[in-house]
Amino acid sequence: MANTPSVRRWAAALRILTILAMVVLVAALVFGIALAGLPDELRRAAALAPDTALAPLHRAAVAASGAIPSLALLYVLSQMARLFGRYAGGETLSHHCAGHIRRIGAGLLVAVALDLVARPLQVLLASLANPPGERVLSLSLGTADLGQVLAGGLMVVIGWAMGEAALVAEENRGFV
């Protein structure tokens, strides 16, 4: 596959945007855990009365538990930045690129799994402010979760296929 200058330019730009997205995500996580209040949707899911205020450490623990899936997203973004870096450097069909693509897919799958655990944990932690007998555990699975599982699985399969293609390309280069 020919490595055109436009592929390199796009990859370099996307690498920068991916790194910026990582910085914004980290800043949003720090702000959300340290300062932000509980969203109304979470208050409803935890059956918290509107006038119920959580202690700062309790609120931070609730926010931190909800941020757990974002760690997998940071991993995915880091793999994307590395992949774009390889593309920008002219490396397109290699085992390294295939590995990054597989890890991007695996990261998306891990993010869904972490979200399935973090959401109920977050609601349970928030509902600890309720009196005994009024605490809540809420499980949910949405269509976005299914879409992310499919996208993650697709990326893993594409990574495997690209690994096979890289092996064939390497063998072909040996014949020339």
TrEMBL record:
Instruction: Tell me which domain of life the UniProt entry assigns to the organism this sequence originates from.
Output: Bacteria
Keyword Transmembrane applies: yes
Q: Which UniProt keywords apply?
A: Membrane, Transmembrane, Transmembrane helix
Question: What sections of the protein cross the membrane?
Answer: 12-37, 57-77, 108-129, 149-169
Q: Which InterPro entries match?
A: DUF2975
- What is the name attached to this protein's record? DUF2975 domain-containing protein
Its source organism is Vannielia litorea
